[in-house]
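thread from #wetlab-drylab

HS: before we spend reagent money on co-crystallization trials with FE2/S2 (inorganic) cluster, can we at least see a predicted complex? here's what I'd submit
DV: go for it
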Amino acid sequence: MAGPDQRPTNPPRLQILVCDGPSCGVTYESELLKERIAGKIAGDPELRGRCAVVDYNCFGRCSEGPNLFVRALGPGDGPGDDPDPSELERQRGFYPGMDEAKCDRVLDEHCRKGQPVVEWVDDY
Ligand code: FES
């Protein structure tokens, strides 16, 4: 349920999977994005403790990288748990072609406000 400012009153725990596969990790240096995201989370009381950023080994959409996925964690999911691929297919949280500015906006709108960035988010 959203409050007056449209933020969820009970925001979900989120796992941000950043691809470090052979294309995203090497060609697109996704580690730099992961470090940026981790720093933003650590410095933000609204995200810290609720969002985790982890490596993911290839979404199979390598030419679109660097790619990440914002996944809502279930009650039994730990922040470092590998996702079931079928879970990624059920959630709409795949973001291809990320850069620093896009990551910042995804963190603010999808992760903080619970509003996926509709012009960038894609099915997996
Ligand atoms: S290396 Fe990132 S999607 Fe394959």
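DV: Helices lie at 22-27, 30-42, 85-90, 100-112.
HS: ok that's useful, forwarding to the group
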